[in-house]
Amino acid sequence: MVEHSETTAPDPRASTLPAPPPSAEVVDGILVLSGRLLIDNIAMLEQTAEGATAIDIAEVSHMDTAGAWYIIKMQGEMAREDAEVAITGADEMQAQLIEVVRRNMPQGQDAQAKRTTLVDRIEALGRKTAASGGVAVELTGFLGQVIAALGNMVIHPRRLRLTSLVHHMQEVGWNAIPIVALMSFLIGVVLAFQGSVQLRQFGAEVFVVDLIAISVLRELGILLTSIIVAGRSGSAYTAAIGSMKMREEVDAMRTLGLDPIDILVVPRVLALVLMLPVLGLISNISGLVGGAIMSWIELGVSPAVFQARLVSNTDVWHFLVGMIKAPFFAIIIGIIGCYEGLKVGGNAESLGRLTSTSVVLSIFMVIVADAIFSVVFALIGI
Predict the structure, then answer these.
(1) Long-range contacts of residues 308-315, Cβ cutoff 8 Å, at least 24 apart
(2) For residues 199 and 208, what is the distance between their CA atoms, to the nearest angstrom?
(3) Can you tell me the distance from the alpha carbon of 282 to that of 76, in angstroms, rounded to the nearest whole number?
(4) pTM for the full model?
């Protein structure tokens, strides 16, 4: 008779029992870690290591990067108490994991940044100055390309794209009339109001006409118009050409043997040169009208007196000075807007950054040019 020994089958539930939670306790000045230091249970450990000067992980059965991070974190907290902290009991795999995590952890807040010295500041200023000089050289070369293209169109008029020119003249000139007229009207109102407050103290209210006429005709009319056009049309030039550059349409033009300067730049610059003096004239008229209305309301200077004073005491050169500046301001705005557009790379961040740069640089250069014109006209007595 053969006896069959009974064997008990293993309980299938045994493998699904949850692993014991990890533990951390301080024993004889040593932080003893045990159990499974994994990402799903690392939060169960108490964040304390008071009185510990070392870490023992000999009883840690499993550990992932979260567990290694916890060990390094505790070591750092203990190190801030000026204690000699060592990690003991780690096998080769655990030691390698801890070292890998340590190398890839970001610098802590205690890491002191390098102090900026005077030499560093001078170096940064020099680099920015050199970069600005490079941009100036590139802009000068770009201006030369545009002038050469314009000269070529004078010799070969058929190369001028008249439809594109008329379209940009409408966008730059006709569509900008409302904002330019409103802005100039309000500037005239402000000049008359502020001037009347000061001139009334001396009984010289009638001189407000001279103040408005000279300020608007000579400086503010064309200058503020150019600033508005730089923010409106200059940024539009950069955005439009930059978008074409992002979609590789400019490269496609060159592949087809078409010059982007002729197609994209010259019509835009020429439209600005033709329309900015017109906008300047409208700005002058609106500013004078606004000043005349406010003078009538605030000072009692009738429109007839305002007109007579304007005609008799305002030299025509005040008007011509503003009109002489207009084409130069237009060239500055058009060249910078198109130049920055052709510099756009293949991402939207580049487009936004260069559009902002175009507006800021255009306004800055317009103001610089206006200052230069003021000095030159003062030296020649105009």
Answers:
(1) 309/206, 309/209, 309/210, 310/209, 310/213, 313/209, 313/210, 313/213, 314/210, 314/213, 314/214, 314/217
(2) 7
(3) 71
(4) 0.68
pLDDT at position 47 over 70: no
Let me know if 82 is exposed, middle or buried by CB neighbors in 10 A (0-12, 13-18, 19+).
exposed
| 52-80 pLDDT per residue, tens | 778 888 888 888 888 888 888 887 777 65
- Quick one: how far is CA 160 from the chain centroid? 34
Q: How sure is the predictor about 235, in pLDDT bands with cuts at 50, 70 and 90?
A: very high
pLDDT of residue 113: 53
Q: Tens digits of per-residue pLDDT, 93-118? A: 888 888 888 888 776 544 455 677 88
Residue pair 54/60 in contact by the 8 Å Cβ criterion: no
* Long-range CB contacts for residues 146-153, cutoff 8 Å, separation at least 24: 146/261, 146/265, 146/266, 146/269, 146/335, 146/338, 149/259, 149/261, 149/262, 149/265, 149/266, 150/266, 150/270, 152/262, 153/262, 153/266
Asked whether the beta carbons of 216 and 184 are under 8 A apart, the reply is yes
Angstrom distance (rounded) from CA 328 to CA 374: 14
| 3-state SS assignment for residue 163 | helix
* Exposure class string for 1-38: b at 16+ Cβ within 10 A, else e: eeeeeeeeeeeeeeeeeeeeebebeeeeebbbbbbbbe
User: Which ranges constitute the DSSP H helices of the chain?
Assistant: 65-79, 92-104, 118-155, 162-172, 177-199, 208-214, 221-229, 235-246, 249-255, 260, 266-298, 303-313, 316-342, 348-379
Q: How far is CA 164 from the centre of its chain?
A: 30
What the chain holds in terms of domains, given with CATH numbers, is 18-104 (3.30.750.24), 135-379 (no CATH)
In the DSSP assignment, the letter for residue 111 is S
Which region among 34-48, 91-105, 259-273 has the lowest average model confidence (pLDDT)? 34-48
Burial 362-377 (b: 16+ CB within 10 A, else e): bbebbeebbeebeeee
